[in-house]
Structures are given as structure tokens and as C-alpha cells.
Specification:
Elements: H1 2-18, H2 22-33, H3 38-45, H4 54-90, H5 109-123, E1 127-128, E2 134-136, H6 137-140, E3 160-162, E4 165-167, H7 172-182, E5 187-196, E6 208-218, H8 223-238, E7 244-251, E8 254-263, E9 268-277, H9 279-284, E10 293-300, H10 301-309, H11 322-325
Parallel strand pairs: 1-5
Antiparallel strand pairs: 2-4, 3-4, 5-6, 6-10, 7-8, 8-9, 9-10
């Protein structure tokens, strides 16, 4: 049986040299390794051998089978490489032809505005903070001096998920969380993100919009620091020729509070709200209002974009009209 196995390997090597394509290879493989092949017949004869010879002969048959399979795989790879070489010889690629042009995407205009402000405030030493959009009533209102039943809650009619959770109405909860995490240490942060209020959608209002809020807490922080920061912010965004005006206002979480207007060359336009952090908010955040002070501000991203780029309808930011979005492709200044 051993001689027959050796003879089978020798004959297969000779026959493999003679075949010229995959079809002949498949036929030869079937005749050598198939169910009706000589190797298969030898495996049947194995059953009739004495028990002491079976292990040795069985091992020889398996070794021969592995050797034959490797020979056929090598020949198959040879044909595949040959076909690839012929294909490369006959196919010519003109590298001078222009490639296929794919349209480039770009950041949404609102994202461009946010990134612009992030770059500006990072340059002033601020950190960028984020938080959950589904907030607890505690962080969204109570930590900001808006306890249950406070009349100012009516200014932010809200989407409640359950009695204690709602879609945040401002990014101020991020400020509250950061204050608690800071353990009384100084803070310089801005908090950009989506907020939600039950406004009726129209030309100037949306139930979902973007905000950027800022918070600074430390020693000897004054109203002058707030005004200087806001003036630098407006000059960065609108141009060095811009001036601002502060008007007294009311927000539960700041005292004193101001409305901030920017002069457009003809008139002042209301643009954001700000103020010194209320002592109650400082206390709830783990700070001693007798030792540290702070200021906070909040601006609507859509409003800033509408003023700078002369967009006359807030809904254009959310309708995905490619004609509108392409106007700001690549970042218009």
C-alpha cells in the first residue's frame, strides 16, 4: 500500500505539469481525491488490514492526502496569478484622466457659529462643558433659584418627561453640575448645546434651539469683568467696530441682571441676557458668596447667526434645504 501511495504522488506531480487550465485541474483533482479515486479505494482496503497495521497505514494515507491537496492548491494559485498577470498586461490605466468628483459636506451653519465661539473662549482660558438634554427639575430649576411654584418658571414652559424630568430649557444645568463638581474652586466655562421650550414655531421662535451659556466664578469678579468679556465676544463675532449696551433686567439666577444690546450702526439690537451670579445659586453650588463672586451669560446661537448672516427665518436652520445650507459651505465669515 505504501508503494501505491508513493506512485500516486509521483504520477500526480507529472500530470499537474501537463494541465493548462482550471477545468483540467478540476478533473484531475476529482480523479485523485474524489470518491471514486484510487486514494478512496485505498482507504476502503484499509479496513481489511490486520489491526496492528491499520494505524501506520491510516497515517500514511492521511499524510498523502494532505500532500496531494497542497499540490493542487499550489497549482490553483499558479493559475490565479497567471490570470492576474495577463489582466495587468492587457489593461491600461490612464492616470491623467480626471477622477470622479464627489460633493464635499460641511458643518451646519449653527455648528460653525458654536465652534467659532468655542475657539474664542478657549483662547481666554475657558473650558467647554456638556451635560444631559433630559434633565431633572432639581438641576434645571431648583439649583438656579427657581423653586417649585416660582412664577418665573412660566417664562420657560417646558416639555416634561415625568413629574421630575424634562427636556432642559437652557444649558444652565451644566453650570450647576460643574459648580458642584468643582468643590469651591474657580470656574471658567461655556456650555453650548440644544435646549427645548414649548414655543410656537414661527419666523423667530422654535421649540428647539441652540444656546451658549458662560459662567465665571472666582475672587474679585465684578460687573466690569462681565462687560469686558461680552464686549470682546461681540467684537470677535461681529467686528471690532461694534459696541454694546447693558440695560437692567431680571433673571432669578443672577443679581443684578442685564439685557445686552449690540449697536449695528443704526440702532441697538437686543442680543443676550447676563448678570452677576445670585448669592443663592452660589450657596447651592457649594460656594461662599462672601468670598467669591461670579458672572453668567446666555446667548441663542440661532439669533447670533440670523443677525450676522441676515437670515430672516429661524426655520431655515432646520428644514435641511440644501440651497440654503450651501450658502455657508466651508464657513462663511
Amino acid at each position: 500500500m505504501q508503494e501505491k501511495l508513493e506512485k500516486l504522488v509521483i504520477e500526480t506531480k507529472q500530470n499537474l505539469k501537463l494541465i493548462s487550465d482550471d477545468n483540467e485541474l478540476s478533473i484531475l483533482r476529482s480523479s485523485v481525491l474524489g470518491k471514486k479515486s484510487e486514494l478512496s479505494d485505498l482507504m476502503v482496503l484499509l479496513k481489511g488490514l490486520p489491526n496492528e497495521e491499520k494505524p501506520l497505514m491510516g497515517k500514511l494515507i492521511n499524510q498523502t492526502k494532505v500532500q496531494l491537496e497542497a499540490m493542487f492548491d499550489e497549482k490553483k494559485m499558479y493559475f490565479e496569478n497567471l490570470r492576474l498577470e495577463n489582466k495587468l498586461k492587457h489593461e491600461a490605466i490612464d492616470v491623467t484622466l480626471p477622477g470622479v468628483s464627489f460633493p464635499n459636506g460641511s458643518s451646519h451653519l449653527l455648528q460653525q457659529v458654536i465652534e467659532d465661539f468655542e475657539t474664542f473662549f478657549i483662547g481666554l482660558g475657558y473650558e467647554i462643558k456638556d451635560g444631559p438634554e433630559v434633565e431633572t427639575d432639581h438641576y434645571n430649576f431648583e439649583m438656579l433659584n427657581l423653586e417649585q411654584g416660582h412664577p418665573a418658571r412660566g417664562m420657560q414652559d417646558s416639555f416634561y418627561v415625568d413629574p421630575t424630568h424634562l427636556l432642559r430649557t437652557h444649558t444652565s444645568p451644566v453650570q450647576a453640575r460643574t459648580m458642584l463638581e468643582s468643590n469651591g474652586k474657580p470656574i471658567k466655562i461655556i456650555c453650548p448645546g440644544k435646549v427645548y421650550r414649548r414655543d410656537h414655531d414661527d419666523q423667530y421662535h422654535s421649540h428647539q434651539f441652540m444656546q451658549i451659556e458662560g459662567l465665571v466664578i472666582g475672587k474679585d469678579i465684578t460687573m466690569a469683568d462681565l462687560k469686558g468679556t461680552l464686549l470682546a465676544m461681540m467684537k470677535h463675532y461681529f467686528g471690532d467696530d461694534k459696541t454694546i449696551r447693558l440695560r437692567p433686567s431680571y433673571f432669578p439666577f443672577t443679581e443684578p441682571s442685564v439685557e445686552v444690546d449690540v449697536f449695528d450702526g443704526e440702532k441697538y439690537i437686543e442680543i443676550l441676557g447676563a448678570g452677576m451670579v445670585h448669592p443663592n445659586v452660589l450657596k447651592m453650588g457649594g460656594y461662599n458668596p462672601d468670598e467669591v463672586q461670579g458672572f453668567a451669560f446666555g446667548v441663542g446661537v440661532e439669533r447670533m447667526a440670523m443677525l450676522k448672516y441676515e437670515v430672516d427665518d429661524i426655520r431655515l436652520f432646520y428644514t435641511n434645504d440644501i440651497r440654503f445650507l450651501n450658502q455657508f459651505k466651508g464657513g462663511r465669515k
